[in-house]
Design brief:
408 residues, alpha+beta, OB fold (Dihydrolipoamide Acetyltransferase, E2P), 3 domains, 5-stranded antiparallel β-sheet, 5-stranded mixed β-barrel, elongated
């Protein structure tokens, strides 16, 4: 049985974007740029149907029956009634309750880029879909954003357990608004903090599309090698496979925040589409990335959180909580008898250890091989007291070491 020291912090639950982006009360008219509101109305399918030129425009919602409702939106703040018109338009959007109106209000409340996913899922009676369809969409969308965040941190064909804390932090401020029916989902990425995420996803999606086209046209898989520079990875191809699997096709689009404008090198374009026929190329690329990513030489400093060996002597396995040296939360390392003894004494003294080795890609960069130069590391008194408190709260030293103490 594996025992965890009681002083060790619990493993954090994997964070995810907010369950839904609910606009709440509409923003104040003084906080809304009329030009931005007009651009958002146009993006979400509203039609401009006249209005006083240079003063205001009359907008009607998309879909049948939209002609019965309209908004008067000023073009500038140059006229005395501009704030009144804006206030009336915002309250009308808040009362509308349609998905388009809600997304417009969210985009005004959280100025940023919008990322949209669509899945063409065959419908059942009354165009219904199984309840699992929405879960599949949410999971694939989150994996897509996570892959883009990992690529912001570093370009790699296979990230494994690396950079996960950085990527999770990037997703903290992303809001998600699923549309009814489980076929469409929108993520709102704040431009102030999340634009690198949206830019990297834009480039990676187009590079993945080009690499798949090249492969399906009879070319070699080498196009996926160069696509790594754009952010394509094992994680992204896996997310795309999850998005497309079980559908007739899927699309992803990035719409830039009107207030921030289009970033350099990201010309406005339509959705990037993927079909079931792309799945073999995407799976092949994902496997290729995982096999090709090399191990990484590292020098890690970490605290010993678990030790195990099958007998009271000889080599053993140690689990370290990484403090510095590698962007992974934990690693496992096999140590010879002397190094294992040093690691045990360092833990009893409340000290971390430093070890040199190679972080292996097999297993997701969670294992250190070729360990050498295992030495205790001095820390300040406050940190040492915290580590010692963790040890004192452990149920028993024997449980921690997990050694088979048979008869001698």
């Amino acid at each position: 049985m594996t025992h965890r020291p009681t002083g060790e912090p619990l493993r954090p639950v994997r964070p995810r974007p907010a369950d839904a982006a609910r606009p709440g009360p509409p923003p104040e008219p003084g906080q809304v740029d009329p030009a931005v509101l007009g651009a958002l109305l146009h993006r979400h399918g509203w039609q401009r149907r006249g209005g006083a030129a240079g003063r205001y425009g009359r907008w009607t919602p998309p879909g049948p029956g939209g002609g019965g409702t309209s908004l008067l939106v000023p073009e500038t703040r140059a006229f005395p009634d501009s704030d009144d018109l804006l206030g009336e338009a915002l309250h009308a959007l808040a009362r509308s309750g349609t998905p388009a109106a809600r997304e417009i209000l969210v985009a005004l409340a959280v100025p940023g880029d919008e990322i949209r996913w669509w899945r063409d899922v065959p419908g059942g009676p009354g165009d219904t879909v199984p309840w699992t369809v929405e879960e599949q969409l949410r999971s694939a969308a989150r994996r897509t954003l996570l892959a883009a965040a990992l690529a912001v941190r570093a370009r790699a064909g296979y990230h494994g357990a690396r950079h996960r804390r950085f990527a999770a932090a990037m997703l903290q401020d992303v809001l998600v608004d699923p549309a009814p029916g489980g076929r469409r989902l929108t993520a709102f990425v704040p431009a102030a903090t999340g634009r690198p995420l949206a830019v990297r996803l834009h480039h990676a999606l187009h590079a993945a599309r080009e690499a798949v086209d090249h492969r399906r046209a009879g070319g070699g898989p080498d196009a996926f090698d160069s696509a790594v520079r754009a952010g394509v990875s094992h994680e992204l191809t896996g997310a795309l496979v999850a998005l497309v699997r079980g559908t007739e096709g899927a699309r992803i689009a990035v719409a830039w925040a009107p207030a921030a404008g289009v970033p350099p090198g990201c010309a406005a374009a339509g959705p990037v589409e993927f079909s079931p026929g792309d799945l073999p190329a995407l799976r092949e690329a994902g496997d290729r990335y995982r096999r090709a990513e090399p191990s990484v030489p590292v020098r890690i400093t970490g605290t010993v959180v678990r030790m195990r060996r099958s007998q009271p002597y000889g080599a053993g396995t140690v689990r370290l909580r990484v403090l510095t040296g590698a962007d992974v939360p934990h690693v496992r390392v096999t140590l010879d008898e002397e190094a294992y003894r040093i690691a045990g004494h360092a833990h009893l003294a409340g000290l971390p250890v430093r070890v040199r080795g190679r972080l292996e890609s097999r297993g997701g960069f969670r294992r250190l091989t070729g360990a050498s130069e295992v030495v205790p590391v001095r820390v300040d008194d406050a940190e040492r007291d915290r580590l010692m408190k963790s040890l004192r709260e452990t149920a028993g030293v024997a449980d921690f070491f997990e050694e088979a103490c048979g008869e001698e």
